[in-house]
Amino acid sequence: MRVRFPARTTGTFPARASGPPPAGGRWRVPGAVVAGAFPALAFPAPSLWWLAYVALVPWLLLVRSAGSPRRAAREAWLGGGGFLLAVHHWLLPSLHVFILVLAALLGLLWVPWGLLVHRLLGGRPGPGRVAAALMLVPAGWLLAELVRSWEYLGGPWGLLGASQWQVPPALRLASVGGVWLVGLLLVAVNTALAAVLALPRARLAGLAALTGCAAVTAGVWWWAPQPRAAGTARIAIVQPGVIDRPGRRLEHEEALTRTLAGRGVDLVAWGESSVGTDLGADPALRARLAALSRTVGADLLVNVDARRSDRPGIFKSSVLVGPGGPTGDRYDKMRLVPFGEYVPARSLLGWATSVGKAATEDRRRGDRQVVMTLPSGRGGGLRIGPLVCFETAFPDMSRHLAADGARVLVAQSSTSSFQHGWAPAQHASLASLRAAETWRPMVHATLTGVSSVADAHGRPVGRRMGTDTSAAAVYDVPLASGTSFYVRAGDWAVYAALAALALYGAAEGVRTRVRRVAPPRR
Q: Residue 290 pLDDT > 90, yes or no?
């Protein structure tokens, strides 16, 4: 079946806005911001996951009814800024007014999406144009998410598909096409609902699209293979809680770790920045940690946040320590948090350090991912893939670790600066998504909560340790064998969406050229 992209009726949408704004125009600016912010309620902490299936509808209806493409672009921009502000509002104490600047700049990424919505759903489109919208509007949304996922623009925190971290059918979809496929289907459902509500001529097409989305989800649920059980690993998480002084925190981490002696653990995971001194420059600390490993009978995965003794600069590094001291396995964090760990274009944006808590000195980046093999204890031979902090938001990093042979993903993080906001719960939820995508269980160890474990299906294992907890908890982590389709095939859903946008752009270009060279009708 061919999908046609019919041209718009001349005069329905003027190329340039003129005259006074349409009726009700006064509320459209704040309405766009609120409509864009509305989907944030689907994420933790509210975690109203079901809202993601309808939350874009008000924004879609607003943009499609704009009086001109220019106004549609403006309302898409304002909504994008509102969405980013809502999802990242917990950054306000750290970035202050600068978060408004960032939201305004990144909100521009939704302008092409808004133009697509206006072009394909505006006016009184027929079934053909709505059918095109059901493919291209989700693709346009994914394009905005893809661009802002670049680490230098803040990374992929708050992808729409990530709101479904506790929904089993969505997690099964993630094992096939990653978080990107989940997001595409969510936007398609919202687009179909908007068509059903606002476009009587295309209501049947909208209902057919809703049926199609349900059929795809059901088909994946029944067809997609699942990981096979392959034993268990006994892994402990040490969460010391909020302790300001690094020395006292280290002492408390050691005390909690000693309580694990005799419990048969394979690995003890500490949180991000759990050690504040470079082990290469501190023989006494190396000896303390080695003795601790011998006491527990397991290797320790600590996280060093310090100036290196063998290289210039400050690094955040996952370091494996065994009974004889550091094993030599070390992973230096590759993707740093903008402003938190470095200031992009510091010569231009360095003023951000004067209005917020931006990093006064840039940390250095690692240059490769590392899969570590536990050399000792009951866990000898177990291969783990470390990630640090918001690296868990990047689907490609966990996918590469799984492809390189990691049996367990171990994330070390700290959200201690945002204890009373949505950040800890948002961060912990990513473990379920990454585990489901890769068929590899993920251990999320934090300094101050929320610490959690997810199995290879994305299901929770044991109890979560909240932000009010200081404890050492042991988890029997189910291991899995096999390789998920997403690990094998990669970001095919992204490429398909980009191809659809490219084909549409080429078709529009050809149509425009034909109109210019066609002789006028007599």
A: yes
Whole-number Å distance between alpha carbons of 40 and 52: 9
246 neighbors 305 (Cβ within 8 angstroms): no
CA separation for the pair 148, 169 (Å, rounded): 26
Token pair of 147 as six digits: 């661009």
What does the pLDDT read at residue 375? 86
Distances in Å between the Cα of 247 and the Cα atoms of 252, 254, 276, 290, 299 are 9, 11, 8, 18, 21
Q: Tokens in use for 9?
A: 């009726």
| Higher local confidence (pLDDT), 66 or 513 | 66
Closest CA to 121 of 53, 66, 185: 66
Distance CA 74, CA 323 (A): 60
Give the model confidence (pLDDT) of 137-194 as tens digits.
Answer: 999 999 999 999 998 888 999 999 999 999 999 999 999 999 999 999 999 999 999 9
Strand-pairing partners, residue 228, are 481
User: How many other C-beta atoms lie within 10 A of the C-beta of residue 492?
Assistant: 16
The alpha carbon dihedral of 21, 24, 30, 32 has a sign of: negative
Residues whose CB falls within 8 Å of the CB of residue 345, separated by 6 or more in sequence, listed in order? none
Collapse the DSSP code of 63 into the 3-class scheme (helix H, G, I; strand E, B; otherwise coil) and give the result. helix
Cα–Cα distances (Å) from 471 to 311, 453, 461, 467, in that order, read 34, 15, 17, 11
For residue 509, the model assigns a pLDDT of 87
pTM for this one? 0.91
**Averaged pLDDT for residues 260-269:** 96
Q: What distance in Å separates the CA atoms of residue 212 and residue 58, rounded to the nearest whole number?
A: 22
DSSP letters along 357-396, please?
Answer: ---SSPPPPPSS---EE--SSTTTT-EEEEEEGGGGG-HH
267: nearest Cα among 482, 402, 443: 443
Strand 452-454 relative to strand 471-481, pairing? unpaired
Q: Quote the pLDDT of residue 510.
A: 86
